[in-house]
Amino acid sequence: MRSRNIVHASAWASLLMLIGSIRLPAIEEKPLSQDASTATPTASAPTAADAQKFVDEASGRLLQLGVEASRAEWVKSTYITDDTEILAAHADQKALDANVQYAKDATRFDGVNVSPGVGRELKILKLALTTATPSDPKEGEELTRLITSMEGAYGKGKYCPPGQPAGQEKCLDIEDITRIMASSRDPDQLLDVWRGWHAVSPPYRKDFVRYVELANKGARQLGFADNGAMWRSGYDMPPDDFAREVDRLWDQVRPLYLSLHAYVRWKLREKYGDRVPASGPIPADLLGNIWAQSWENVYPLVEPPASSRGYDLTQILKNRHTDYTQMVRYGEGFFTSLGFPPLPETFWQRSMLTKPADRDVVCHASAWHIDLDQDVRLKMCIDITAEDFNTVHHELGHNYYQLAYSHQPVLFRDGANDGFHEAIGDTIALSITPEYLVKLGLLDKAPDASGDIGLLLAKALEKVSFLPFGLMIDKWRWQVFSGEIPPDKYNQTWWAMRLKYQGVAPPVARSEADFDPGAKYHVAANVPYMRYFLADILQFQFHRSLAQAAGCPAGTPLHRCSIYGNAEAGKRLRAMLAMGKSEPWPDALEAMTGQRQMDATAILDYFAPLKKWLDQQNQGHPVGWGTMNNE
Predict the structure, then answer these.
(1) Structural domain contains residue 34
(2) Does residue 22 carry a pLDDT above 60?
(3) pLDDT score of 473
(4) Is the dihedral of CA 40, 41, 44, 46 positive or negative?
(5) Catalytic residues, which ones?
(6) What is the CA radius of gyration of the chain?
(7) 118: phi then psi, degrees, rounded to nearest 5
(8) pTM over 0.85
(9) What is the span of the domain harbouring residue 13?
(10) What is the chain's mean pLDDT, rounded?
């Protein structure tokens, strides 16, 4: 499964995502410096012309600083040394200081009658902040310190199992625990490491309480009800309307999740016995993931009989002596078949496609937009595997999105909302079907679709199982920021919401001495999470629409449709990508799908054969978990 983390990087988008989520500079009432802010106070009320001048100058300055920071970050990621880390941190800090100051200064133009374009640019500047530091310098410094401290404590977190021989102690970090959770079938070991990791976060529970207080104060100074309302304001609708919108989407897909949950529960009960209740929630330590956020690692325990797809793409690629450049050429060819231009020559000159032998690098795959123009790059240590074949297509989806909107004004060079970019990459990956592989000459003949239940189940364990977690993690934080969940009920309500949405329960009793939300990186590091829920919804909606535009043959299951080589699908895709963030996201959605609402029924269409199969398998087994209203 792809990690739920930043997977595209640019001089603009990635830096804005970092603001407030890693290290916020303290903000003073006065501008940081003349070159970091041009909106110095004047005696007269600001005018529309002043607003236009402000966004023009802000765009130019942020572009300059963003490109400098992006280049420094690229070097840091591809040449890891103490010096490159220091240089990147310095460049990042300059860009972040300016971003925060411009966000504050943009509020000067609240109420000024400006053009729609300028109004949107001002809004983007204000909403770029993940957290706005209070204007009081001491409180700003405190909030910065709290966020940095919580993220640092999470990153340094380790579990040291007791009872080890003296001098031979081995402590487990999050990567070690992740591997154990994914591969172990020993329930005692799984419970042990689950408890061990969840002991990392209680020490910074008190810091989190204070962080909430200060983050809310900063958001209110920008005119928002609280920090959660500020997060929800970035979706071109009133914050409360957005909250209702995600609930509507969840209600659409919930029946499929209930069927999947019921099937996985009784299959795990076959393996683990009474540790898994027949009709209650599934223990969180038995789902193959430290947070039980996705379940693909338990596939071997729930795999249907005779589920082989009939081919091994990894072996096919290796038999053909495919190299890493050809892997990327396959991805480029997907886009050129839709009418997109070839990748710029600089992409091939400047990308990092394999792990260098002479230095340390960050191998995690990511797509970069260095100059917000034509300098796009892929950073990846490609292995010749089916997984990396999919990943290349996914990452190039980001690169082609970046190229498509590079003509837009600087502040519009981003996805239509924060779920769109990730959704585009996954939409492309959904077109990697057996039929597509036949067209590439990698398969002689596509296997019959009747044997696809295993493939659909594996994808559902990744995508469908994630949806309620992707929803509830920010719903919990929204209620924390609003005060609906007070500090003395943080943990209680966390598990109540996980029960309500996921049908998942802690494997051992929990109390308010614990701080289980903080055992998730995005909570400790102040990173919003709703983008991942939206991306999982949007990618299937995009795929269905593009498959229809491509004239997928009648009777072909949606999961077997590929848009490869179809000009009409390419035309729709290019039209949406070119809009960037210049218009509200419903306009971008309409340009591709003809719909102005996000629609989770595409997930039901995609997994329709699986849903029918699951319901057959679940006959005689309870569905739901009884203790909550989940009928």
Answers:
(1) yes
(2) no
(3) 97
(4) positive
(5) 395, 522
(6) 24
(7) -65, -40
(8) yes
(9) 8-133
(10) 89
Tokens 């920071």 locate to 69
Output the six-digit token pair for 618. 């679940």
Residue 155 tokens read as 């990153």
Token pair, residue 612, equals: 């029918």
Q: Which pLDDT does position 131 carry in this prediction?
A: 84
Element (H, E) at 341: none
Q: Which residues contact 402 (CB under 8 A, 6 or more apart)?
A: 8, 10, 367, 369, 372, 376, 413
**CB contact at 8 A, 362 and 66:** no
Lowest pLDDT segment from 479-488, 551-560, 581-590: 551-560
Helix/strand/coil for 376: strand
Q: Token pair for residue 493?
A: 């309500």
Q: What's the DSSP call for residue 310?
A: S
35 domain-assigned: yes
Residue with tokens 């338990």: 298
Say how many domains are in the chain.
1
Which one-letter amino acid corresponds to residue 215?
A: A
Whole-angstrom distance, CA of residue 194 vs CA of residue 363: 27
- Asked whether residue 572 is domain-assigned, the answer is no
Other C-beta atoms closer than 10 Å to the C-beta of 133 total: 27
- Percentage of the residues of the chain whose pLDDT score is greater than 90: 74
Over residues 175-230, the pLDDT tens digits come to 899 999 999 999 999 999 999 999 999 999 999 999 999 999 999 988 899 999 99
Beta strands in 248-331 (DSSP E): 282-283
* Chain centroid to CA 370: 20
Q: Report yes or no on 60 lying in a domain.
A: yes
Spatial neighbors of 244 by CB under 8 A, at least 6 apart, are none
| Cβ neighbours of residue 399 closer than 8 Å, sequence gap 6 or more | 343, 347, 367, 369, 376, 377, 378
**CA distances for 300 relative to 182, 183, 184, 264, angstroms:** 11, 10, 12, 11
Indicate the DSSP class of residue 448.
Answer: P
Classify burial at 108, counting beta carbons within 10 Å of its beta carbon; exposed 0-12, middle 13-18, buried 19 or more.
Answer: middle
pLDDT for residue 43: 54
627 band by pLDDT with thresholds 50, 70 and 90 = low
Both tokens of 93, joined, read 């800090």
What HEC string does 263-275 produce?
Answer: HHHHHHHHHHHHH
* Residues 541, 602: Cα–Cα separation, whole Å: 5
484-514 b/e (C-beta count within 10 Å ≥ 16 → b)? ebebeebbebbbebbbbbbbbbbbeebeeeb
Of 52-66, 295-309, 338-352, 434-448, which range is least confident? Answer: 295-309
Q: DSSP letters of 90-121?
A: HHHHHHHHHHHHHHHHHGGGTT----HHHHHH
Number of residues assigned to the chain: 631
Confirm if 68 and 91 have CB atoms less than 8 A apart. yes
Tell me 352's DSSP state: B
Distance CA 495, CA 218 (A): 28
Which residues touch 312 (CB under 8 Å, ≥6 apart)?
A: 386
Amino acid at 246: V
Band (pLDDT 50/70/90 cuts) for residue 98 is confident
pLDDT mean over 352-363: 89
Neighbours of 226 (CB within 10 A): 20
